[in-house]
Protein 1
Amino acid sequence: MAEDTRPARSLPVLLVLDGDPPPRLGRLTGRVRVRHTDASGLAAELPGADVLLVWDFTSDAVREAWPGPGRRPRWVHAASAGVDRLLCPELVASDTVLTNARGVFDEPIAEYVTGLVFALAKDLPRTLELQRGHVWRHRETTRVAGTRAAVVGAGPIGRAVARSLRAVGVTCAVVGRTARAGVHGAEDLPRLLTRADWVVCAAPLTEATRGMFDARLFGLMQPSAHFVNVGRGQLVDEGALVEAVSRRWIAGAALDVFQEEPLGADSPLWDVPGLLVSPHMSGDTVGWRDRLGAQFVELYELWAAGGTLANVVDKKRGYVPMHD
Amino acid sequence: MAEDTRPARSLPVLLVLDGDPPPRLGRLTGRVRVRHTDASGLAAELPGADVLLVWDFTSDAVREAWPGPGRRPRWVHAASAGVDRLLCPELVASDTVLTNARGVFDEPIAEYVTGLVFALAKDLPRTLELQRGHVWRHRETTRVAGTRAAVVGAGPIGRAVARSLRAVGVTCAVVGRTARAGVHGAEDLPRLLTRADWVVCAAPLTEATRGMFDARLFGLMQPSAHFVNVGRGQLVDEGALVEAVSRRWIAGAALDVFQEEPLGADSPLWDVPGLLVSPHMSGDTVGWRDRLGAQFVELYELWAAGGTLANVVDKKRGYVPMHD
């Protein structure tokens, strides 16, 4: 193998925050100098980086280190759909371009939500519980086709969820910030909640959406309704949700995201009857890390060629705007 | 309310075997004399019945009582899709018309199977198990879209299962007794099993299918494949299935039907890791008894008017032939 003889200092510096990125980054060998850092080293490394790849999307390190002194990367890529953990006023105000992993998680998350809808309609958690007790107890379950869903979040994930649910006969309303073709504005949400069988949260976490699912919204839902959160834990007032489920204001809920992750072993959320807890995995189907790596390499090649980056986040809004 | 003054003896006698049929039968008031019997009284009541409604589909009483002496009903209706528990040589040889509940269970069972496919692909049983232990353990799951299913049984239930799975992106092969448009013949089954991710049994139980899922067929499946049975327990060699799952020849199985129902509390099937047990409920969505009752009333009205009955079972084959 021919050694790369170009002077190292002419190559852009790609700083990778934490984690173990996939071998796909090897495709950039000779075209970039890769440095790795963990959260504690980030502040010191940032000034020397041209590009920051935030591989560990569970970290608050960027938001914490960014306001410090020195030069800042011209481009930050988050290997996640949500960028809420990165954004600080200084990053928003800067010229740095922020991109996300738009597209990688859409279909996997849509399948996960559809699977939850089936599992809840068919009373599968109870079936497994009865199996553990060796109890043969026939129950009537509900049809999925013909039910109604309100999908909150009109980005690619929310839209994929709606497509997936519609394919199995569920009538879906997609709710975004503002009304547009095929999307209800936030003003329609209360009315849609009162008649939804499934309320799915797939919204970005922004200052406008933080805590939006509160006691008032849960109080609007039908006693037969289920709530599913695949967005971010901070979109939900967890205490209000626990109360709504415990008091049977709603029939149940499935949470894949939480205000604190990982959820502590002593969290009361694990033990709420009717509440299904999963460890932030809805989008992570086999090969997801490779797909994230391949997506970054593609974006890098655009960037290095001086092209226009895709998946550019509107930093003020906190997500990639849809063009439709 | 005017009393029915017609002489009772001019009305056909409808004998109902066991169970608590839905109020829908009230629509036949004044047009039929309804008698109820349990299994022990069936032999004595059969000679006086014009029509037998087998409401309790879990009973072997018909097969046992039918060969006895005396007149036999001209029409027997089974409130189930499968008629395997009714058929005895004497009923097959007789002029009695046998009908079934074709259509009532198709879509509910298709949804149930689709729900199981999602639950298994998304590792939901393990998620619930980890939740009980308060363990946050991220896993990668698999996509449903792009996988392959072999659906064994080309009747309306098998076809509905295939439609439902295709709607979520699964490539489905439907396997029947003989090849025809859209249906593979039994000779293709081994080849299809070797590449299926999901093997769904929705076949009728006949002498040709009894025990068909044996060690040889399980041995053909991929180690990553799952087996789902919503047909009849007797289609499967349960010992061979337990061995296949326990030794990881296949990834797992979900059984809704069993050789013995209800499954005894001491059955080893409850505790096989990777084996999901549900109590013969796949088709029973809210309102199913009403739909079965309404279907019988419709058929009764056809019969009373001298019309041609629908859903007529080919008693030699043991199911209603498809006309396609």
Protein 2
Amino acid sequence: MDDIVIEMTEEPELKDAILIEGLPGVGNVGKLAVEHLMDEIDATQFGEIYSIYFPPQVLVDEDGQTELVNNRLYYCKDVGEDSRDLIILTGDYQGMTPQGQYQLTDKVLGLAEDLNINMVFSLGGYSQGKMVEEPRVLGAATDHELVHQMEDIGVTFSEEDPSSGIVGASGLLLGLGKNMYGFNGICIMGETSGYFVDPTAARGVLEILAEYLTLDLSYEELDDKAEEVEELTNKIADMDMSQGMQQESTNEDLNYIG
Amino acid sequence: MDDIVIEMTEEPELKDAILIEGLPGVGNVGKLAVEHLMDEIDATQFGEIYSIYFPPQVLVDEDGQTELVNNRLYYCKDVGEDSRDLIILTGDYQGMTPQGQYQLTDKVLGLAEDLNINMVFSLGGYSQGKMVEEPRVLGAATDHELVHQMEDIGVTFSEEDPSSGIVGASGLLLGLGKNMYGFNGICIMGETSGYFVDPTAARGVLEILAEYLTLDLSYEELDDKAEEVEELTNKIADMDMSQGMQQESTNEDLNYIG
Amino acid sequence: MDDIVIEMTEEPELKDAILIEGLPGVGNVGKLAVEHLMDEIDATQFGEIYSIYFPPQVLVDEDGQTELVNNRLYYCKDVGEDSRDLIILTGDYQGMTPQGQYQLTDKVLGLAEDLNINMVFSLGGYSQGKMVEEPRVLGAATDHELVHQMEDIGVTFSEEDPSSGIVGASGLLLGLGKNMYGFNGICIMGETSGYFVDPTAARGVLEILAEYLTLDLSYEELDDKAEEVEELTNKIADMDMSQGMQQESTNEDLNYIG
Amino acid sequence: MDDIVIEMTEEPELKDAILIEGLPGVGNVGKLAVEHLMDEIDATQFGEIYSIYFPPQVLVDEDGQTELVNNRLYYCKDVGEDSRDLIILTGDYQGMTPQGQYQLTDKVLGLAEDLNINMVFSLGGYSQGKMVEEPRVLGAATDHELVHQMEDIGVTFSEEDPSSGIVGASGLLLGLGKNMYGFNGICIMGETSGYFVDPTAARGVLEILAEYLTLDLSYEELDDKAEEVEELTNKIADMDMSQGMQQESTNEDLNYIG
């Protein structure tokens, strides 16, 4: 088999489209955000990506049916007041090795180019390693004009954060996208403790994206999920297991929400 | 050398055959099961697989003779009341890296296609991390019809298990088999503590497979092995080394049985 | 994408040029040294190297702009009294795997050959794992004549150091350069504790290189950085946190200087 | 560069030759043995192997001269009473990854076939993890006739040892040699504590090899080295640092001897 296999069920015809990435990562922020977005704008799946760079694994749904781990591509046309076409990338895993990350990202960008995408918008979480009272949405972009444009709609650009750069698909889509394909790119990251899946941070990045796309979104489901997480974390706090917090971050109840 | 080398001593002529996988894994359940099956139905070896994805190692038998680590392919025709043709895959190791797992599985599936296989049946263990009083046989399948069919013959399909999917050859044979080759697939997993090789769990999965193939099997040898393991575990329990259990799981006596 | 991509903005015309390497490493000595050198001689960037062997990461500058991690190539002509042409290699990371190290080094050497380089001069640090009162500059070279030549200008060749050879780009550029391209090569290493970035060690190797190139350099900026580091280490010492030293080596203030 | 580069300075004309392997490994037994053998029979180097599967490193000799890490090939004709031609393989490292081990071994075997080798004789150590009073020489071979032949000249074939097979070049040369090239093969392993380089174990395997080749060898130098090691280990024992033994195994004095 090829190292990366993209199976497309449809070839959407798009113009000046934006590639939005929300793969699993810190606090599952990016994935939560794009999943909510897709529900709201009724996106259509058109592609699946399999790869030797993913874990050798099938997932099993509640009915016992198996699904090979993959990444998935969706599209939606004429989104928001400016009628932008969108491609959305999400999935079960990111590539498991640095080389796999590069090859997967390059393959997606090559496809994006064929589909007339000219911009990348990657979503993620930024772990502060502690509870964050008023989570900001941090940003980085491939050029200064985009930085200013994003500042105007509420994104924080900070000298300190992200101090070590942006690792993984969110970073590479900007880096390779700019250098190899000439795409402009923005990455926005919701601040999060990093201890559990964080629907609140997901709402934060989604609000920025909606503002950018001049799009009205309801956040009800995300807010419900955020409440569930809060209840669970309060329960834990009540049990006075402050040092057990990190351990609980692998708690199935909490991660199930993602 | 090629990354994967398949040496065939014979090209069996089969029709509508089933590929049965029992490679080493949790509790060595799958391997124990297919080894017992092959004894009972008198299967014939026709292929050996060498690969750079296996450990760089020869095994040494009791007489001092070396054998390069490999996977092995066997066949048996007209098995059970429905006269099904079988290919059986077992071996010393699974691929050691995710990429190796993908490539090995894909190579086997390609060969399986050439040999007119249209279904995959993978056998394994499911570790509960604690002693299991009445071990169930858990299942997953590539489509709902198979799920129902397997439920009818005693396989448990559970929302909770396997919660994290199926990792390794057992999972990939279903996932790649379905997506790349159009094979239907079933995976059945015998519940086991995961502490030592588990002939009882192997008997469990084999009973299901026999039922599926309308095949009569004697389980004497598996039961003898199960007794050996039980005696050894009782001995350990008598020594009141409850917390030493896990450590003993690497005990040569216990694993030797596999 | 290719495993290694070299993007050149200019093809400098050089003769009998020297390839000088200062990639990140022990005490960041080599990178500090070449960065200072390039400021002093006003070197011109002409190439960038991207690779799947680097981390999948973009760096973010203080204004929020992203840059794909890379290695960079610079040149400067007619340097020093002997008017030598120089190529300088520096960057954000070395290759992350042994195989990546080999492939990256070989690619750079192939390019170096095309640009008429006939000698490699690699700069690095040599960690003593303890504070070094009077740091020496240690050396190794591809042939005895170069060893003697370097001894004459103050490089120490020691039977004990480096006892385990030279690992990474500094070593491979000499090894592959000699065996595959016939280049002569010298590696000089500034002794350093290895606890933090070490501008003093960088000055040490740079003085040798300047002597070799009969080049006058000012070391003001390096000395300023050395002072900053010393102040910080004294502060730590004052806090009587002797055993915290190693921990502090990851202190952002200290490493920021690099 | 190719993944493996073999540079040959001479193509020896041999007939029915034996490939003898003594690469670094447990107690450095194999390497010590072949190095001593080569001194005694005056072997001639004819090839060097470089590879991306070796560490990215140059070694530095006592005069400061660098050498890219490699494996080396030597030959000697008409050795012993039966006038056997020999190829000897030794070097600085074995391949660092399983895949590298396979590719390196296969490359060496392909060259060996071109040079009319029809047998592999690999030498190594077998770690018992404790001091061994009367070290045996353990063996394994590709077929039963060779097992009996080696038993007759003092090799021990044991059901227990090596229980987990033979890992690395010594094992793969037999396994791939037999399966892919049709070579017969013998591996003999000197029992050793595994704590330090073991010239005594090296003498043990060399005596067997000499017997097999009907060759007279002096063991003076190996015995001198064995004495050095013994003195050092006694010194350690005197210091009553029984539990420090393992730590001392990385003592430079002891390993320097190898």
